[in-house]
TrEMBL record:
The lineage of its organism: Bacteria, Bacillati, Actinomycetota, Actinomycetes, Micromonosporales. This is Sulfoxide reductase catalytic subunit YedY. GO terms for molecular function: heme binding; molybdopterin cofactor binding; sulfite oxidase activity. It comes from Micromonospora pallida. InterPro entries: Ig_E-set, Mopterin_OxRdtase_euk, OxRdtase_Mopterin-bd_dom, OxRdtase_Mopterin-bd_sf. GO terms for biological process: sulfur compound metabolic process.
Length: 377
């Protein structure tokens, strides 16, 4: 039987990516032996609808709003073409993009608190080398005024319809402080023009913030002297639920702390000899300072934490690789755990804060492996 048509353009080899509806999740085993960056062929894809195929020759970025000199309107925007952007001073940024729902399935499997939405494991995250123009450069050229408080990039992909309601094109306000700080309008990913699925010809890259901030296929940017609202900062991408003040938290910004082993789920590990376990940890709030690993035969809370060795080349980077030597004491089922602490002191606990839409899972993931019997001597 033929595969259903994909909303994604790039090939999705089973060894690298797992298809789930319109999205594709990276397999963590596909990062084993890789450097700091996630190769583009295995970078996760999250589409609200489908990847549009756009023409850089006719593409325009249109800026308008009350935060620009002369307050140009949607119909009288300041325009930039692809070549205009390419001629502006270029900058590179090695930045992490993580879906706010990454790790969502552990709310159900570890805490008995299921949440609707894409049932991501830990593979909705990636680090790439992005090249483009600073958003601040384009905003200043477009006539940014001191009155601007929010900017709202909007994508050129189809309008998003959910539960019978058309929410319009994907768009989400970004506070002017972050917009001017380290945000890129990227046209290259890992040294090549952006692939269609990752936002060709131009996407926003907001380092360390929830992926929805990094609008792909950007076609316009509203710059406003008053706060902006869209479904993506009001009814979506906030923490909803009983634990929240008035039932809803602030719009999500930086991602929390997470750790992942570069192993398949239910990996088979050779017995009878020392193995080196590898993984990565990250946080949107700052560099990772330490990582600890605990390995037990059961699912009980761990108390035997020991430090992992951090890869020196990643210090201060977008994420931190680490390794941990382990000699399995016996064949059978073992539970691997890793927990990290970032430069702000934020860490990972046994449970994450439950919330209605299953965002920001930052709990310690219990990763099962099977240790094989050693070969006879
Ligand atoms: N225009 C547009 N931008 C978008 C999206 C989208 O559906 N449309 N998805 C967002 C979400 S939820 C995430 S997690 C990231 C994923 O980026 P990637 O597909 O390049 O990994 O893109 C964001 N930007
Ligand atoms: Mo996302």
């Amino acid at each position: 039987m033929a595969e259903p048509p994909s909303s994604i353009v790039k090939p999705l080899p089973e060894a690298l990516l797992a298809r789930q509806d319109g999205n594709a999740e990276m397999h963590w085993a596909a990062m084993a032996g890789q450097g700091h960056l996630v190769p583009t062929d295995r970078f996760f894809v999250r589409n609200h609808t489908r990847t549009p195929v756009l023409d850089a020759g006719t593409w325009r970025l249109r800026l308008f709003g009350t935060g620009l000199r002369g307050a140009p309107t949607r119909h009288t925007p300041i325009e930039f073409g692809y070549r205009d952007l390419r001629e502006l001073p270029a900058e590179e940024s090695v930045a992490l993009i993580e879906c706010a729902g990454n790790g969502r399935r552990f709310f159900a499997s570890q805490q008995g608190e299921p949440a609707p939405g894409a049932p991501w494991g830990l593979g909705a995250v990636g680090v790439a080398r992005w090249r483009g123009v600073r958003l601040s450069t384009v905003l200043h050229r477009a006539g940014l005024t001191d009155a601007a408080v929010d900017v709202q990039p909007e994508g050129l992909d189809p309008e998003y319809v959910t539960g019978g309601v058309n929410l319009g094109r994907v768009r989400r306000p970004l506070p002017i402080g972050k917009a001017l700080h380290d945000v890129l309008l990227a046209y290259e990913m890992n040294g090549r023009p952006l692939p269609a699925d990752h936002g060709f010809p131009v996407r926003v890259v907001v380092p360390g913030w929830v992926g929805i901030s990094s609008v792909k296929w950007v076609g316009s940017i509203e710059v406003s002297a008053t706060p902006l609202f869209s479904p993506w900062n009001t009814r979506l991408y906030r923490m909803f639920g009983p634990g929240q003040p008035d039932g809803a938290g602030v719009p999500l910004a930086a991602v929390g702390v997470k750790s992942a082993f570069e192993l398949p789920w239910d990996a088979r590990v050779p017995g009878g000899r020392e193995v080196v376990l590898r993984g990565r940890s990250w946080s949107g709030h700052g560099p990772i300072r330490s990582v600890e690993v605990s390995i037990r035969p059961d699912d009980a809370d761990a108390d035997d934490w020991r430090p992992a060795r951090l890869v020196a080349a990643d210090r201060g980077g977008a994420w931190q690789r680490w390794r941990f030597r382990w000699r399995p004491p016996a064949p059978g089922r073992w539970i691997l755990r890793a927990r990290a602490t970032d430069a702000t002191g934020a860490g990972q606990a046994d449970r994450a804060t439950a919330n209605d839409l299953g965002y920001l899972f930052d709990g310690i993931v219990r990763h099962p492996v099977t240790v094989l019997a050693p070969p006879p001597a």
